[in-house]
Design goal:
two-stranded antiparallel sheet; 2 strands; mainly alpha
């Protein structure tokens, strides 16, 4: 798997720059994870692989294009947290507007991604029923926004100039 070049749109606000506030905003394509070379769509594909222990990790390494098992575990854990956070956000949104539709029913054996997709469909239907013409984000965009919140800590390669306390 080779890295391809991708154009990323960057918006600059000169008024905010003059005031000393954040002046740039980057809009990433939905298949990217912020500050990472591993694609979100392949990570999600690896997350959907049935759990078989070591075989799952090896298949996830192939899908994600990495060689270290720790990378796979870290990304799969982040995706799991992002799916849970996204499901919670969509469930709150659906519950806050009961007049626009009922809460979708879930099967006991349904995967967390399946539940999230069901909630996303119901949210899209609620937007249509409300007469809102706003475009509903897709699954990757919702996960991408929640991954930004989960991955706020510095990567393990970060080296501090301050000594560690004993």
């Amino acid at each position: 798997m080779e890295n391809d070049s991708v154009r990323i749109l960057q918006i600059i606000c000169y008024g905010a720059k003059y005031e000393g506030k954040q002046c740039t905003k980057r809009l990433l394509p939905s298949f990217l994870i912020s500050h990472c070379v591993i694609r979100l769509d392949t990570t999600l594909q690896a997350y959907n692989v049935p759990s078989k222990g070591q075989e799952q990790v090896e298949e996830a390494c192939i899908l994600m294009g990495c060689i270290d098992e720790r990378t796979v575990h870290r990304h799969l854990a982040a995706i799991k947290l992002a799916v849970e956070a996204s499901s919670l956000q969509l469930a709150e949104l659906i519950a806050s507007n009961p007049e626009l539709g009922s809460f979708p029913e879930h099967e006991p054996h349904e995967s967390s991604i399946g539940r999230l997709q069901t909630l996303l469909k119901e949210t899209a239907l609620q937007y249509l029923r409300s007469g809102n013409v706003m475009r509903v984000p897709n699954l990757l965009q919702i996960l991408q926004s929640n991954l930004k919140n989960i991955r706020k800590k510095k990567p393990s390669t970060y080296v501090s100039v301050y000594p560690r306390p004993p």
